Amino acid sequence: MRKKxxxxxxxxxxCKATVIDLTGNILATAFQEYSSEHRYPGWSEQDPKLWxxxxxxxxxxxxxxxxxxxSGILSMAITASTHNAVLLDxxxxxxxxxxxxxxxxxxxxxKRLKEKYGDQIFEIGMQMPTPTWTxxxxxxxxxxxxxxxNRISKLMFTKDYIRSFVTGDFCTDVVDAxxxxxxxAKNNRWSKELCDIISLPLEVLPPVKASKEVVGYVxxxxxxxxGLPESLPVIAGCSDTAAxxxxxxxxxxxxxxxxxxxxxxxxxISDTSNPHKKxxxxxxxxxxxxxxxxxxxxxxxxxxxxxxxxxxxxxxxxELKGEDIYIKMDNDAALVEVGSKGLIxxxxxLGERCPYFNTDFRGNYFGVSMIHxxxxxxxxxxxxxxxxxxxxxxxxxxxxxxxxxIRIIGGGAKSELWCQIVSDVFGxxxxxxxxxxxxxxxxxxAGVGVGEFDNEIIVGDSCVQIVKTYLPNMxxxxxxxxxxxxxxxxxxxxxxxxxxxxxxxx
Length: 506
Prior knowledge:
By secondary structure, the chain is α+β, with helices and mostly antiparallel strands. The chain folds into three domains: 4-241, ATPase, nucleotide binding domain (Nucleotidyltransferase, domain 5, 2-Layer Sandwich), CATH 3.30.420; 249-298 and 394-474, ATPase, nucleotide binding domain (Nucleotidyltransferase, domain 5, 2-Layer Sandwich); 300-388 and 486-505, Nucleotidyltransferase, domain 5 (2-Layer Sandwich). The protein has 17 helices and 23 strands. It is globular, with a radius of gyration of 23 Å. The relative contact order is 0.12.
């Protein structure tokens, strides 16, 4: 019987389940969307019941795609976005909707936490408080919903709440623990000092396990609902980002992951922790290793904005013909030489994170002349996003001088032109893996957890398929470095102007 592994990932917008074999081939996959609630500006919450429904639906959808149902399945992993705390009362009931990682309501709490405890939080938790983290989210609940805060008997995170439904266990893994800003990763324990800041009892927090450790088994009620074998081993799992990095085959120190999604990420794998106030530092799902995250707000979202702003007519025509507008945009951009004849784009359409962390920043095209038509705007945008990612990379490069290669993932990585531009800007080899998704990485990790693979390095080398490798044109790299220097000078010069415009705008 063909052996199988199952990964189920819960992103911000939906759940994806993937079944693979032991060579990394995808046998079945299914997706279901769910919604967030935005009751007030900046708020983002989800009802955990939606996750359970999506779990059941996607697993059943995968089962129906398999010739022999789940015969031969060996293990299962659940992964999810991190920072999201599910609060349970003494009866095991959810107290309130889950505040999600992209919720911004705790800005005032973050400000006070930085002023009073900033150094202590950074020293222990390795990051500065922002609304993304669980610690300031909990402080907001404590101050605004004290009746709910006082009812907390157990605190879980998204994947752990869902996994508990499957197995009945109560634990988390090192990656999600780190995402709370309540964890002392250097000593692998919950921090009493950080919990005391918000008067959170340590006993409400779950035991912390290794990501690949088997922590429970499928219960009969879940077997009846999904067709999964009763007593199927389930590992602790990890964050979606950690699973995604594994799915890309980033298993060695010095490997870089560039993500061209709605937002953009540049992550580096390391064998040491490297806390920095402009990055996010996490233990990796590979024990003893770490990954450091930098992020830019508008990556593929910028290209979508250009599509809807300047290419709307072409988009409508392509839709009627059943063609991809992004191919048309790429073909236009490919006609333009490196540097777009001095047209430089800053992709700060939603402000910017690393390395500026300034919500006042705004996007712009600099250097527009009569020669520049739409194809130049398309090329300059692809280059500008690559500059923004390179800006992030420069923060990371200080941590590890032995940079190996880039694994490029996300929807934008389907563009061969964009991948080549990234390779040329970074001056590094860029590899595009076939199945770089969190549910896929979770399934691979589940295989490690039950001993089908000796370790994650073997997984990265044997199961991850590289579709294409892009080699940098070093002549182009030299040109891009000159433009990148100007890109940064423009950013510095515009900073006070953006701040003045922000005052006028409000």
